[in-house]
């Protein structure tokens, strides 16, 4: 593909597929409290490379806090997070992106001042030449790499099913398309691990079905997928492993089948 | 030696008290609306100039001050109703530029009405100064300190004991929650602008026997009040008072012992030091965490 | 909001044509003088707009960078006998270092800290310029040598022969200022269109989104702060050579406010908007001279009213209106390719 060398040491893409192999993630005794409330408490689990993992639990169980801890938006009070065996807890999100971690957000984080394609091109940031002088003087090599980046972004938009919005401004796109746009942007970083925070929230059933196929295709490319999701049908259909949280603690863990029959889980969900 | 130090201290605490009042005005408005109101300094000018021209018409001093404060209060409320409220959807930067426009407008208006000359109000007490351990203290300084203390106490009571005060506090902590609890945000913000204008006008009226007053006095006093608020952690009432006093004393000591040319630089050097080494200000950490 | 209507029009050629038309329509020393000053200030705010409009950070001390460029050139050429070009480059380097030193710790913080820091820095610089008369001439100001490159001197009082035509010094200076403005716009646009510019726009769109895809946002904020300071310094240097005499007035808080006001008035994030803002704001005092006594009042009033009724600034608001009148045409032309 178009591996561009640069002084800014961009992440080197895997030569074969342009995509690195999935990363594995281990969380050890992770804790985070907000003013006395334990959002995540002494949580330990392991996510295997290349699989689809779901994190579920009632509202306020600490799922999004967990994501924010793993992706560096929050600093953990205690505990460790290991990405491919390397400790990463407390690392800033921009550094984690270099290590192949990417995510989407429950409350959309799309740059509404840019077009759809530009939002995805932003995801290519680490893979681009970011030479300052070249930018100032609009060198031809920069124009070529921007053109290639734009092509790549359009390809990704088609991949996530946003082909109708190749020319759209982000501010003119419907909610469901913006959710897929976020996935395309995350994929543009060529992640080893992708964290999806409630990707199906607010989608209709046709859109959810499309999302289900998309997540499976992403995992098939070797990307480790972790998703927080409320749609149980989706979770049970595609996840290899499910982690159930309740009040920031691990309630259960296992295959969808195991979790479905776990008495604690049934009690937590039915007992509210 | 000691008398000299005491002299600088008196003068520092006096200007510090004025800065504290201005800083409290900034803090009030910032807490209620997150706007840095650059027109705050103009209310100091209005307090002094309006008192002066009313005195010139033969109005007795206490009434003149009262009317000047009333005028500032009305202008403060109008500033919010006519300029800030209609643009409340805009960027914070845009709102700040609006307050700068208001500040230029008020200054221009004052220049048209009152001219460009400098004036001094007569001292409030007959006796101009007293001697304390070899240092001269103006009786007006005592007036300034007394009035500032009273106002700070009154504000503290207002925020802890009255419903309206608590509503302002609640709004500054969490706008959304306050709205849900039935607080009328726009009213609260207007009240904050009005109170800030009153604080400024009082500062202007009590200070002008010492500092003199003119149409353009609001710029520097306003900026220094802002620095005092920022030193205190922009948003903290205690911080504003402490920041004001610290700034006043630091300025007086610099002017006395180092160089009076660089007296005005102290405030701005302090703000740089504070930002570099303790960016949340002296009392701001609590406020910052809430956000 | 991206401005589809103006961005479809090639801005740079239009600007070049307008700049060419000015001396043809208004060939008069008085107007050329104003136009030259407007062009230099416009180039300054094009740089400031990169910081305000794209990185969402506000500098309340940009006049000080402008003044440092001006005084740097004045002192290095006057007191130390340097030629203008190395002098202005050296001043710009100094300003860049200063901006970097102040910006680096502060741009890591969230909030309006940069505006407070630049406010403080700006006023301190103004006070120093006022007080250190031995170096700066103090409140009375300091004369500046005419601009020259390789022995060729450009003075408003001279006349020049170009291709057999006699060109007045004022016109020659206007041409230089025009070229500088075009260059400033070209470089700013290049930067905005590059990956660096995209990262910066993302800071304004969603900083957290930018960070999770690997954008080191505080690094880019710092970069753009330094660049905007260098813009101000360079234009300050040219301004000093042009006017031939500078005073501490250049460094005042009021001047900083004027610069930031131009950006907000013209339209944050709109390069051509801020140029229009510069034209209007600098012409306004000329138009208000008849009202003399009421000048300041009216200036404040106009500023307030514009910001209340057009909070996004002149050009974005007007082009937004245009877009609303022809929404279909704009959208369909977008869908075609």
UniProtKB/TrEMBL annotation, chain A:
<keyword id="KW-0813">Transport</keyword>
<dbReference type="GO" id="GO:0016887">
    <property type="term" value="F:ATP hydrolysis activity"/>
</dbReference>
<dbReference type="Pfam" id="PF12399">
    <property type="entry name" value="BCA_ABC_TP_C"/>
</dbReference>
<dbReference type="GO" id="GO:0005524">
    <property type="term" value="F:ATP binding"/>
</dbReference>
<dbReference type="GO" id="GO:0005886">
    <property type="term" value="C:plasma membrane"/>
</dbReference>
<dbReference type="GO" id="GO:1903806">
    <property type="term" value="P:L-isoleucine import across plasma membrane"/>
</dbReference>
<dbReference type="GO" id="GO:0015808">
    <property type="term" value="P:L-alanine transport"/>
</dbReference>
<feature type="domain" description="ABC transporter">
    <location>
        <begin position="25"/>
        <end position="272"/>
    </location>
</feature>
<dbReference type="InterPro" id="IPR003439">
    <property type="entry name" value="ABC_transporter-like_ATP-bd"/>
</dbReference>
<dbReference type="InterPro" id="IPR027417">
    <property type="entry name" value="P-loop_NTPase"/>
</dbReference>
<dbReference type="GO" id="GO:0015192">
    <property type="term" value="F:L-phenylalanine transmembrane transporter activity"/>
</dbReference>
<dbReference type="InterPro" id="IPR051120">
    <property type="entry name" value="ABC_AA/LPS_Transport"/>
</dbReference>
<dbReference type="GO" id="GO:0005304">
    <property type="term" value="F:L-valine transmembrane transporter activity"/>
</dbReference>
<dbReference type="GO" id="GO:1903805">
    <property type="term" value="P:L-valine import across plasma membrane"/>
</dbReference>
<dbReference type="GO" id="GO:0015188">
    <property type="term" value="F:L-isoleucine transmembrane transporter activity"/>
</dbReference>
TrEMBL record, chain B:
<dbReference type="GO" id="GO:0006865">
    <property type="term" value="P:amino acid transport"/>
</dbReference>
<keyword id="KW-1133">Transmembrane helix</keyword>
<dbReference type="InterPro" id="IPR052157">
    <property type="entry name" value="BCAA_transport_permease"/>
</dbReference>
<feature type="transmembrane region" description="Helical">
    <location>
        <begin position="142"/>
        <end position="164"/>
    </location>
</feature>
<protein>
    <submittedName>
        <fullName>Branched-chain amino acid transport system permease protein</fullName>
    </submittedName>
</protein>
<keyword id="KW-0813">Transport</keyword>
<comment type="similarity">
    <text>Belongs to the binding-protein-dependent transport system permease family. LivHM subfamily.</text>
</comment>
<dbReference type="GO" id="GO:0022857">
    <property type="term" value="F:transmembrane transporter activity"/>
</dbReference>
<feature type="transmembrane region" description="Helical">
    <location>
        <begin position="185"/>
        <end position="206"/>
    </location>
</feature>
<keyword id="KW-1003">Cell membrane</keyword>
<feature type="transmembrane region" description="Helical">
    <location>
        <begin position="6"/>
        <end position="30"/>
    </location>
</feature>
<dbReference type="InterPro" id="IPR001851">
    <property type="entry name" value="ABC_transp_permease"/>
</dbReference>
<feature type="transmembrane region" description="Helical">
    <location>
        <begin position="226"/>
        <end position="253"/>
    </location>
</feature>
<feature type="transmembrane region" description="Helical">
    <location>
        <begin position="92"/>
        <end position="114"/>
    </location>
</feature>
<keyword id="KW-0812">Transmembrane</keyword>
From TrEMBL, chain C:
<keyword id="KW-1133">Transmembrane helix</keyword>
<feature type="transmembrane region" description="Helical">
    <location>
        <begin position="37"/>
        <end position="56"/>
    </location>
</feature>
<feature type="transmembrane region" description="Helical">
    <location>
        <begin position="63"/>
        <end position="80"/>
    </location>
</feature>
<feature type="transmembrane region" description="Helical">
    <location>
        <begin position="296"/>
        <end position="315"/>
    </location>
</feature>
<dbReference type="GO" id="GO:0015658">
    <property type="term" value="F:branched-chain amino acid transmembrane transporter activity"/>
</dbReference>
<dbReference type="Pfam" id="PF02653">
    <property type="entry name" value="BPD_transp_2"/>
</dbReference>
<keyword id="KW-0472">Membrane</keyword>
<keyword id="KW-1003">Cell membrane</keyword>
<protein>
    <submittedName>
        <fullName>Branched-chain amino acid transport system permease protein</fullName>
    </submittedName>
</protein>
<dbReference type="InterPro" id="IPR043428">
    <property type="entry name" value="LivM-like"/>
</dbReference>
<feature type="transmembrane region" description="Helical">
    <location>
        <begin position="112"/>
        <end position="129"/>
    </location>
</feature>
<feature type="transmembrane region" description="Helical">
    <location>
        <begin position="220"/>
        <end position="239"/>
    </location>
</feature>
<dbReference type="GO" id="GO:0005886">
    <property type="term" value="C:plasma membrane"/>
</dbReference>
<feature type="transmembrane region" description="Helical">
    <location>
        <begin position="86"/>
        <end position="103"/>
    </location>
</feature>
<feature type="transmembrane region" description="Helical">
    <location>
        <begin position="259"/>
        <end position="284"/>
    </location>
</feature>
């Amino acid at each position: 593909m178009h591996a561009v060398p640069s002084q800014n040491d961009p992440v080197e893409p895997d030569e074969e597929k342009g995509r690195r192999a999935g990363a594995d993630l281990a969380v050890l005794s992770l804790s985070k409290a907000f003013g006395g409330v334990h959002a995540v408490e002494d949580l330990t689990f392991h996510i295997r490379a290349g699989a689809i993992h779901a994190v579920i639990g009632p509202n306020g169980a600490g799922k999004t806090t967990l994501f924010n801890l793993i992706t560096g938006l929050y600093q953990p009070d205690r505990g460790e997070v290991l990405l491919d065996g390397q400790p990463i807890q407390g690392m800033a999100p921009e550094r984690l992106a270099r290590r192949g971690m990417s995510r989407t957000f429950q409350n959309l984080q799309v740059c509404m001042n840019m077009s759809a394609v530009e939002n995805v091109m932003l995801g290519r940031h680490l893979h681009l030449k970011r030479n300052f002088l070249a930018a100032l003087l609009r060198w031809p090599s920069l124009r070529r790499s921007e053109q290639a980046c734009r092509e790549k972004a359009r390809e990704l938009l088609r991949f996530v099913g946003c082909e109708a919005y190749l020319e759209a401004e982000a501010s003119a796109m419907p909610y469901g398309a913006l959710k897929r746009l976020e996935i395309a942007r995350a994929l543009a970083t060529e992640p080893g691990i992708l964290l999806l925070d409630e990707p199906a929230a607010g989608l209709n059933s046709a859109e959810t079905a499309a999302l289900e196929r998309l997540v499976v295709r992403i995992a098939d490319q070797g990307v480790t997928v972790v998703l927080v999701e409320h749609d149980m049908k989706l979770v049970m259909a595609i996840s290899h492993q499910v982690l159930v949280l309740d009040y920031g603690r691990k309630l259960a863990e296992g295959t969808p089948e195991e979790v479905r029959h776990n008495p604690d889980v049934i009690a937590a969900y039915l007992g509210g | 030696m000691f008398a000299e130090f005491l002299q600088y201290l008196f003068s520092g605490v006096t200007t510090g008290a004025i800065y504290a009042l201005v800083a409290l005005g900034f803090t009030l408005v910032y807490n209620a609306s997150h706007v840095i109101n650059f027109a705050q300094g103009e209310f100091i000018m209005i307090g002094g100039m309006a008192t002066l021209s009313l005195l010139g018409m033969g109005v007795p001093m206490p009434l003149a001050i009262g009317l000047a404060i009333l005028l500032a209060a009305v202008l403060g409320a109008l500033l919010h109703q006519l300029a800030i409220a209609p643009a409340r959807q805009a960027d914070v930067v845009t709102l700040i530029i609006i307050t700068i426009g208001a500040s230029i407008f008020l200054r221009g208006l004052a220049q048209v009405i009152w001219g460009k000359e400098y004036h001094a109000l007569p001292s409030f007490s007959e006796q101009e100064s007293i001697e304390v351990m070899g240092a001269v203290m103006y009786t007006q300084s005592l007036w300034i300190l007394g009035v500032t203390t009273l106002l700070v106490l009154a504000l503290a009571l207002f925020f802890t004991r009255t419903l309206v005060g608590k509503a302002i506090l609640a709004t500054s902590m969490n706008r959304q929650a306050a709205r849900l609890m039935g607080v009328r945000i726009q009213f609260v913000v207007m009240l904050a602008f009005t109170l800030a204008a009153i604080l400024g006008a009082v500062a202007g009226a009590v200070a002008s026997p010492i500092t003199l007053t003119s149409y353009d006095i609001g710029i520097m006093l306003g900026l220094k009040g802002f620095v005092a608020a920022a030193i205190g952690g922009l948003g903290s009432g205690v911080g504003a008072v402490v920041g004001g006093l610290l700034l006043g004393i630091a300025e007086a000591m610099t002017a006395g012992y180092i160089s009076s040319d660089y007296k005005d630089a102290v405030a701005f050097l302090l703000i740089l030091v504070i930002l570099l080494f303790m960016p949340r200000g002296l009392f701001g950490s609590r406020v910052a965490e809430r956000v | 909001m991206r401005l589809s209507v103006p961005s479809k029009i090639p801005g740079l050629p239009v600007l070049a044509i307008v700049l060419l038309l000015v001396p043809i329509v208004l060939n008069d020393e008085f107007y050329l003088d104003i136009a030259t000053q407007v062009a230099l200030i416009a180039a300054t705010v094009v740089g400031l707009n990169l910081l305000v409009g794209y990185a969402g950070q506000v500098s309340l001390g940009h006049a000080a960078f402008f003044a440092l460029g001006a005084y740097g050139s004045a002192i290095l050429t006057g007191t130390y006998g340097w030629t203008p070009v190395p002098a202005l480059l050296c001043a710009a380097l100094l300003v860049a270092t200063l901006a970097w030193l102040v910006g680096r710790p502060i741009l890591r913080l969230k909030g309006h800290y940069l505006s407070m820091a630049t406010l403080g820095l700006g006023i301190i610089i103004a006070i120093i310029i006022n007080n250190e008369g031995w170096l700066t001439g103090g409140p009375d100001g300091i004369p500046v040598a005419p601009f020259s490159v390789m022995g060729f001197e450009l003075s408003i009082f001279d006349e020049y022969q170009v291709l057999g035509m006699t060109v007045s010094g004022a016109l020659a200076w206007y041409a230089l200022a025009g070229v500088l403005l075009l260059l400033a716009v070209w470089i700013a646009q290049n930067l905005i269109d590059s990956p660096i510019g995209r990262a910066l726009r993302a800071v304004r769109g969603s900083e957290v989104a930018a960070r999770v895809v690997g954008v080191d946002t505080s690094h880019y904020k710092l970069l753009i702060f330094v660049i905007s300071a260098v813009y101000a310094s360079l234009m300050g240097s040219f301004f000093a050579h042009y006017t031939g005499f500078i005073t501490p007035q250049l460094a005042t808080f009021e001047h900083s406010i004027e610069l930031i006001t131009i950006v907000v008035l013209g339209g944050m994030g709109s390069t051509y908007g801020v140029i229009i803002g510069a034209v209007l704001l600098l012409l306004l005092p000329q138009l208000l001279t008849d009202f003399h006594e009421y000048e300041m009042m009216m200036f404040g009033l106009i500023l307030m009213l514009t910001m209340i009724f057009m909070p996004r600034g002149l050009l974005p608001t007007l082009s937004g209106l245009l877009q609303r009148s022809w929404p279909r045409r704009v959208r369909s032309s977008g869908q075609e390719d």
